[in-house]
């Protein structure tokens, strides 16, 4: 049995370790970050070339099932995988970690709306954690930003007033609390990524009464089978949803 595991998340690495050696797992990474954390087993890196490329690859590699454990905001690859699997009638599962409860956060549906919310609310010292690609919408803002990302955004998209911190989670509550206080942050801008790796910033913001602007998740493709945990994904495979060809 051969499974394509679309990854780039801690859950995908945990799932690869759990499925082997009974299942032949090929993990796939986009290749966005230098020196990525690698799962155990076979790994391929780089895009497939859209839906057509993915469909051809699945056929050529004689894949029996696809498990999409990509980040909840990786909507393009998730849509492509759903389409390719439907066309090939391949068993397909999405492992999507549960979303955070937004609580009192200002919930918006895009990075653009997050930038509008920051402007309308008059926030002046913003902790921006929406990632490299989420920075450009703030380029014209007059606020000051503490920008945290795994890889540096292009210089021409950076807002006038900012400090850049390059790092990768997990982050501790104590560390996030100290960071928010040290920089006198008045608003945290975050995606609703879910999970424990990066949630300490929300708890610290709550304790310090700092406003939160939260970008809501893109919707999943209609009709896909979805689970929220690695255990459930292991059970999906074990329950025989995947038949070797
Ligand atoms: P995306 O917008 O959904 O995908 C853009 C393109 O990147 C896809 O069309 C595909 O190229 C390629 N791609 C994405 N994930 C891939 C994978 N696992 N294996 C092979 N190709 C992949 O994705 P994204 O938001 O840029 O995220 C890229 C990767 O980073 C994902 O694997 C995701 O799990 C991880 N990640 C994303 C975030 C986030 O906030 N978006 C956060 C943490 C980790 P082709 O069309 O050429 O196949």
UniProtKB/TrEMBL annotation:
The protein's organism comes out as: Mycobacterium celatum
- Biological-process GO terms, alphabetical: cobalamin biosynthetic process
Q: What is this protein called?
A: Precorrin-6A reductase
Keyword Oxidoreductase annotated:
yes
Per the UniProt record, one Pfam family is CbiJ
Which PANTHER family does the UniProt entry name for this protein?
A: COBALT-PRECORRIN-6A REDUCTASE
- The answer to whether UniProt assigns keyword Oxidoreductase to this entry is yes
A Gene Ontology molecular function term for this protein is:
precorrin-6A reductase activity
UniProt entry keywords in alphabetical sequence: Cobalamin biosynthesis, Oxidoreductase
Q: What is the lineage of its organism?
A: Bacteria, Bacillati, Actinomycetota, Actinomycetes, Mycobacteriales
> What pathway or pathways are given for this protein in its record?
Cofactor biosynthesis; adenosylcobalamin biosynthesis
């Amino acid at each position: 049995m051969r499974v394509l595991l679309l990854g780039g998340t801690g859950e995908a690495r945990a799932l690869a370790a759990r499925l082997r050696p009974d299942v032949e797992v090929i993990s796939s990474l986009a290749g966005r970050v230098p020196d990525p954390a690698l799962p155990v087993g076979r790994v391929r890196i780089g895009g497939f070339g859209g839906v057509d490329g993915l469909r051809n690859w699945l056929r050529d590699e004689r894949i029996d099932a696809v498990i999409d454990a990509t980040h909840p905001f990786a909507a393009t690859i998730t849509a492509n995988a759903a389409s390719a699997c439907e066309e090939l009638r391949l068993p397909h599962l999405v492992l999507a970690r549960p979303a955070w409860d937004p609580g009192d956060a200002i919930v918006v549906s895009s990075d653009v709306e997050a930038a509008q919310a920051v402007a309308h609310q008059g926030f002046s010292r913003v902790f921006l954690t929406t990632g490299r690609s989420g920075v450009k919408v703030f380029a014209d803002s007059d606020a000051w930003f503490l920008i945290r990302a795994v890889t540096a955004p292009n210089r021409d998209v950076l807002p006038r007033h900012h400090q850049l911190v390059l790092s990768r989670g997990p982050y501790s509550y104590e560390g996030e609390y100290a960071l928010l206080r040290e920089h006198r942050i008045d608003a945290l801008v975050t995606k609703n990524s879910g999970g424990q790796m990066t949630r300490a910033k929300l708890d610290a913001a709550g304790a310090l009464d700092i406003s939160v602007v939260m970008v809501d998740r893109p919707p999943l493709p209609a009709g896909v089978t979805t689970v929220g945990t690695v255990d459930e994904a292991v059970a999906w495979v074990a329950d025989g949803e995947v038949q070797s060809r």
